[in-house]
């Protein structure tokens, strides 16, 4: 079987992608999903935000975003891959794009928050060199699930 992620193109997220990513956002995050307005707000902050979509032809199958706060640090805002496309390396590709952009912008570290009950995402981040550095109790609302804070040091990594 041909690697499904290999035919997927990563491209800049644009406003017209917001409706297409909504079903993925809802399926993966439910009551904690971002609203379309939140994505609009993120895209409007062009100086500090950097978003990509994963497209298989015209079909949006994933997306990811980064926020860069000057040379000190960057934050992974989100990474999402449609359930039927998970496990084929697309999440890794999206994460690598974010890390490459953080390095291009001079970030010394990249941080993220991941649900404490999302072991597969934590494994993905750990395989890319992220280390758990903290815990935010009850961070995700309304579920009250904790967030694990993870950090990646850019120095010498890429």
Automatic annotation (TrEMBL):
Residues 8-155 form the N-acetyltransferase domain. Keywords: Acyltransferase, Ribonucleoprotein, Ribosomal protein, Transferase. Signal peptide: none annotated. The keyword Isomerase does not apply. Pfam families: Acetyltransf_1 (PF00583). GO terms for cellular component: ribosome. The keyword Glycosyltransferase does not apply. Gene3D superfamilies: 3.40.630.30. This is Ribosomal protein S18-alanine N-acetyltransferase. The gene is rimI.
């Amino acid at each position: 079987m041909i690697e499904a992620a290999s035919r997927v193109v990563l491209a800049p997220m644009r406003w017209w992608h917001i409706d297409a990513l909504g079903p993925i956002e809802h399926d993966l995050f439910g009551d904690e999903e971002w609203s379309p307005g939140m994505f609009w707000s993120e895209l409007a902050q062009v100086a500090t935000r950097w978003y990509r979509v994963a497209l298989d032809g015209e079909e949006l199958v994933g997306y990811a975003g980064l926020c860069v706060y000057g040379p000190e640090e960057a934050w992974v805002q989100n990474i999402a891959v449609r359930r039927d496309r998970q496990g084929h390396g697309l999440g890794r590709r999206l994460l690598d794009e974010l890390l490459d952009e953080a390095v291009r912008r001079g970030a010394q570290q990249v941080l993220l928050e991941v649900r404490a009950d999302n072991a597969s995402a934590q494994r993905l981040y750990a395989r890319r060199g992220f280390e758990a550095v903290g815990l935010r109790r009850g961070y995700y609302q309304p579920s009250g699930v904790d967030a694990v804070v993870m950090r990646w040091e850019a120095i010498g990594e890429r």
